[in-house]
């Protein structure tokens, strides 16, 4: 996972057979102070159905917590994820 703060994006990559990164998907956000509004989650079709979206959201939420920030789950996938994972309720705001 790579945090591209200038682009306000977290990106998930895999390594191909030649050791080169291949983008699997990303989460876009907007930041306002210590709050990150997670606006859009994408996993590219060829990587779908393998749990990459959940891994990406978990990584972002863990990073947000580690940095003392909070999230506003705008994206419907992130909303459903935090509903199923109440252990993140301490960092979720509306």
TrEMBL record:
<dbReference type="GO" id="GO:0016740">
    <property type="term" value="F:transferase activity"/>
</dbReference>
<feature type="domain" description="N-acetyltransferase">
    <location>
        <begin position="2"/>
        <end position="93"/>
    </location>
</feature>
<keyword id="KW-0808">Transferase</keyword>
<dbReference type="InterPro" id="IPR016181">
    <property type="entry name" value="Acyl_CoA_acyltransferase"/>
</dbReference>
<dbReference type="Pfam" id="PF14542">
    <property type="entry name" value="Acetyltransf_CG"/>
</dbReference>
<dbReference type="InterPro" id="IPR031165">
    <property type="entry name" value="GNAT_YJDJ"/>
</dbReference>
<protein>
    <submittedName>
        <fullName>Acetyltransferase</fullName>
    </submittedName>
</protein>
<dbReference type="InterPro" id="IPR045057">
    <property type="entry name" value="Gcn5-rel_NAT"/>
</dbReference>
